[in-house]
Amino acid sequence: MSDDQVNSGFRAYADHLQRTADLAPAAEIRRRGDRRRRNRAAGAAFAVVLIAAVGIGVGLDRGPDRSVPPIGPSASPSASPSVAASRSKAVPSVTSNLSQLRRIGVDLNTGVLIDVADDGVDKWLQVGAGDVVDFTGAVKDSSTEMSLLPAATTTPNSVVIVPVALPDSCVTATPSAPLQLQPCQEGDEAQIWEIVPAGDSGQFELKGAFGIQRVDGRTGMQTINF
């Protein structure tokens, strides 16, 4: 055998030894694989715990809002509203023209006594027990203080009669005396009263759905400032 062949054999054997020396034993390979799997499992478990902790933190942060709402400036007290403004219902878009009544001195949109004129005694329109309304009042109080407000009609000189203390109630006509106090109903003919002028002194007749009101044979009425 020549020297070249011997040297070539030695080199091949040396290369084989080098390759086999770099390969790890099978047991070592399995050990390394198990360690990598354990590391991956531990990492996954840690990620689950971290996500759960973040979720709890967000839930706590979204708890009931206990912040104090801003407090705006307090409303300043205003002047006492008029009788018409104190009614809870909106003012109708169409109302009776009362200009003639103002000219002859009939008091409107304010507290008044509705009195039987020229009889020499006090007989004022009054709300009594059971919401009965008649001309038996003789004392200035909440039962006799009335207000004449424009009615929701195109007929001139037409009003509704409202107790100032009960702004959502209206004096309602009945076929026979006494009258009744009932909740105001816009357009209810029984609650619309035509003020028929009876001269230039502010006297008038009170005409309702069932005719002109008469008290002891008298029909003349007048308003007296409350």
Characterise this structure.
The chain is of the alpha+beta class. The protein folds into 2 domains: 59 residues; 134 residues, Trefoil (Acidic Fibroblast Growth Factor, subunit A), CATH 2.80.10. The chain is 29% helix and 23% strand. The strands form 2 sheets. Strands 1, 4, 5, 8, 9, 10 and 11 form a 7-stranded antiparallel β-sheet that branches. A 4-stranded antiparallel β-sheet has the order 2-3-7-6, with no helix packed on it. β9 and β10 form a beta hairpin. The chain is rod-shaped and about 155 Å long. The chain starts with a helix and ends with a strand. About 10% of the residues have low confidence.
Would you spell out the secondary-structure blueprint of this structure?
Layout lengths: L2 H20 L3 H36 L21 H4 L12 H5 L8 E5 L7 E4 L4 E6 L8 E5 L7 E6 L5 E4 L6 E5 L9 E5 L6 E5 L2 E2 L7 E6 L1
Keywords: Membrane, Transmembrane, Transmembrane helix
InterPro entries: Ricin_B-like_lectins (IPR035992)
Summarize the structure.
With about 230 residues, the chain is of the alpha+beta class. About 30% of the residues lie in helices and about 25% in strands.
Number of strands: 11
Helix-and-strand structural type: alpha+beta
Q: What multimeric state do the chains show?
A: single chain
The fraction of residues in strands falls at: 15-25%
Report the total helices.
4
Q: Indicate how many domains the architecture comprises.
A: 2
| CATH uppermost class of the largest domain | Mainly Beta
The end-to-end span amounts to 149 Å
Q: Ranges with pLDDT <50 over ≥5 residues?
A: 58-80
Largest sheet entry: 7 strands, antiparallel
Shape: rod-shaped
User: Which CATH-level-2 architecture of the largest domain?
Assistant: Trefoil
Mean of residue pLDDT? 78
Rg of Cα set: 50 Å
- Which fold name fills CATH's third level, the topology of the largest domain? Trefoil (Acidic Fibroblast Growth Factor, subunit A)
Order of helices and strands: HHHHEEEEEEEEEEE
Helix content estimate: 25-40%
